[in-house]
Structure formats: C-alpha cells, structure tokens
Amino acid sequence: MDKKELRKKYTKIRAEVKNKDEKDKLIREKLRDLEIYKNAKSVFVFISYRSEVDTKEIIENILEDGKKLLVPLVKGREMIAVEVKGIDDLEENKMGILEPKDGEEVKDVDLTITPGLAFDKDGYRLGYGGGFYDKFFAKVDTIRLGIGYSDQFVESLVHEEYDKPLEYLLTDEGLVEFDQK
User: Fold this and answer.
1) Under DSSP, is residue 120 helix (H, G, I), strand (E, B) or coil?
2) CA-CA to 123 of 20 to 30 Å: which in 106, 134, 163, 170?
3) Contact indicator for 123, 180 with CB cutoff of 8 Å
C-alpha cells in the first residue's frame, strides 16, 4: 500500500474511533501528568480538525497552567509556531482550519504536540503529506510528542529518509517512549 492508500485507510480508522469524548478526556488528563508537559514553558499544539484528538481543552489547560501557547501558522510550504493568547486569536484558513491571522515566528519551543493519522512502534507518523512537521522538526529543537487514539498505533509505517520520528506518543492507553537510535 502506498502512502496515499494508507492515508485513506487510517483516516477512516480514526473517523470510526468509538468513545472519542472519553478518550479525549483521558489523553488530556494523562498529558497534564507528564513530566515533559509539566516542565515545558512553551507548548506548540495543533488546532484539532475533523476526527483528530480534540485539542480545544488542551489549549485551555496550557493557558491555565501559565505556559506560552504556540500554534501553527502555515506560510507557503512551511509551518511556523506563533504565540497566541487563546482560541479567539484564530480564524479559519482556506482549508477550514483555525490558525492565527499573522504573527512572529517563535523558535524557542519546549514541547510540540503533534497530530497524525497513524503512529508506529519506531516513532514514525503518517501525516497528511505536506511534510510540515518534518520541516518544522528539522529547524526547531523541541520534544516531539504525538497524540492520538490507541486505535491509531500500528506495528510499522512506510517512512522516508527525511521523516523525523517522534520521541513519545500519548494515547488514551498511556505514554509510549520511543528508543531514539
């Protein structure tokens, strides 16, 4: 199966996850208990879209916990981290995804919470094919934490040489720490 077929397969699997609200709540609670989260002064988090783990309350928690909230802003073929004060600072882009209207790039990012369609046992993720996170990870030194449902955790995924593996994956079943070779 090529990446296009895999994306279709895992989009369907993620869309059909049962008890999403319950699993989102478990992920939020587990995230707040993680040392890598507690120690982070700045957290870069995606704005959930479609069937992704809901990050709206995670965003509220980040602000409540007194951390710097960073969210993605896509500029051309690149994604940058921009500081915002809350969801009200965002508007829908042409894809219907909330993002900041504009902002200065922040490169001091302690923790990056990363989406995916699927995640494998070596820390690789299947994204949407734009390479935004791989390019971001190539230029920003940050802890790479994926979040997803346990249904999205698979044995292995096809990956390219330039793909940057995650260091951790947090699901409704708990934290997986990957062995970085």
Assistant:
1) strand
2) 106
3) yes
Tokens of 155: 């044995």
Q: pLDDT digit string (tens) for 108-157?
A: 999 999 999 999 999 999 998 888 999 999 999 999 999 999 999 999 99
Are the C-beta atoms of residues 149 and 23 closer than 8 Å to each other?
Answer: yes
Token readout for 163 is: 């793909």
- Asked whether the beta carbons of 177 and 144 are under 8 A apart, the reply is no
Nearest CA-CA partner of 97 in 83, 110, 111, 115? 115
- Produce one character per residue of 148-173: b if its CB has 16 or more CB atoms within 10 Å, e if not: bbbbbbeeebebeeebbbbbbbbbbe
- Is the CB of residue 70 less than 8 Å from the CB of residue 42? yes
Q: What is the pLDDT of residue 130?
A: 86
138's tokens: 């190539």
The tens digit of pLDDT for each residue in 54-101 reads 999 999 999 999 999 999 999 888 999 999 998 888 998 877 888 998
Q: Note the pLDDT tens digit of each residue in 164-180.
A: 999 999 999 999 999 86
- Among 169, 159, 91, residue whose Cα is nearest residue 131: 159
Separation between Cα atoms, residue 132 and residue 178, nearest integer Å: 21
Distance CA 167, CA 143 (A): 7
